[in-house]
Design brief:
- It is a single chain.
- The protein is an alpha/beta fold.
- Among the domains are: 77-146, membrane protein fhac (Ubiquitin-like (UB roll), Roll), CATH 3.10.20; 151-286, 3-Layer(aba) Sandwich (Rossmann fold), CATH 3.40.50.11690.
- The chain has eight helices and 14 strands.
- The chain has helices spanning 18-27, 30-53, 56-74, 91-100, 114-122, 193-202, 238-252, 276-286; strands at 80-81, 83-87, 107-108, 127-135, 139-146, 151-155, 158-162, 168-172, 183-185, 210-216, 220-225, 230-232, 259-263, 271-274.
- The strands form three sheets. The protein has a nine-stranded mixed sheet with strand order 8-7-6-9-10-11-12-13-14.
- A hairpin with a 4-residue loop joins strand 11 (220-225) and strand 12 (230-232).
């Protein structure tokens, strides 16, 4: 009888292999999982990108496509600036502003350098400050604070309009252009405008006879009156000295007399200088010869 042979199956060992065990242990580490899930795909994508975009022809094609896409967006009607409005400026100044702003309308708002344009506008003498912005509807709005002329300065370059801070506003060809404004002269007069305006305010009682102020040696002022008269003020306390002269004039009609100079530089010893006609009359009356020059 033939011996029966039992067919036995090979049993699978459930224990993992050495390498599988190590991989399972590595997978349990968070850093390894991040490496496999994040960094390896990123490195692969970067490598493919470098290979693909490393070609010069592809780079140029992509740059051209991006330029066309940007241009198509920037030149859309809603982004185009079609007009300019200037507020806060006179007609003459508004014309100068339009000349100095380097834009040709219509233009895309993306091509406007508003900060550079603001600096250009503020280079104009008559502009104290400016603000530029693009408003809805394609309008470039320019808001300006204009300097207001307060006085005329006869300087080395001719007549100039100054504001109350002594800043130049504009040049002048003739005094007749602004007869409503007072005039000052002399070197350094433009840096003492506030002092000159204060003296003009104090001289209001004699304003109808006042021709202007002259800065002497960049230190003090002389008031120039009609009839060739001059009031010489001190370096310090000029307003108080002028008040004394005005009070004396109101009490004794000083400036209506034959006086050419009122020297009040020394408050303790004011000096009056008579006109040439008054001196001749005095010589004739006294029968004596008066010598010397008492101007200074």
């Amino acid at each position: 009888m033939r011996a029966l042979r039992w067919k036995t199956k090979t049993r699978h060992d459930p224990a993992p292999s050495k390498w599988a065990y190590r991989m399972e242990r590595l997978w349990l580490r968070p850093g390894f999982r991040r490496l496999v899930r994040i960094f390896l795909p990123m490195a692969l994508a970067c490598g493919v990108g470098l290979v693909y975009f490393g070609d010069a022809a592809r780079q140029q094609a992509i740059a051209d496509w991006m330029a066309e896409a940007r241009a198509s967006i920037e030149t859309r009607p809603e982004f185009m600036v079609k007009a300019m409005a200037v507020d806060g400026a006179s007609d003459v100044l508004a014309g100068h502003i339009r000349e100095v702003i380097p834009v040709d309308l219509p233009i895309s708002s993306f091509d406007l350098d508003l900060e550079m344009m603001r600096e250009q506008v503020e280079t104009l003498d008559a502009v104290r400050r400016a603000d530029l912005r693009v408003k809805a509807g394609g309008l470039l709005q320019v808001n300006v604070e204009e300097r207001v002329p307060a006085i005329i300065w006869r300087g080395p370059d001719g007549l100039e309009l100054l504001d109350n801070e002594g800043h130049r506003v504009a040049g002048m060809a003739s005094r007749q252009e602004r007869v409503d404004l007072p005039i000052i002269a002399g070197e350094g007069a433009n840096v003492a405008v506030s002092e000159a305006l204060a003296l003009l305010g104090a001289a209001e009682p004699i304003r109808d006879r006042l021709l202007g102020l002259v800065r002497i040696s960049e230190l003090r002022w002389d008031l120039v009156m009609d009839r060739g008269q001059r009031i010489m003020l001190p370096q310090h306390g000029a307003s108080a000295a002028l008040d004394r002269v005005i009070a004396l004039n109101e009490a004794q009609d000083l400036l209506k007399r034959d006086v050419s100079r009122v020297d009040i530089r020394n408050g303790a010893r004011p000096i009056l200088r008579l006109t040439e006609g008054a001196l001749e009359d005095m010589r004739a009356l006294k029968g004596i010869e008066i010598k010397g020059n008492t101007e200074e």
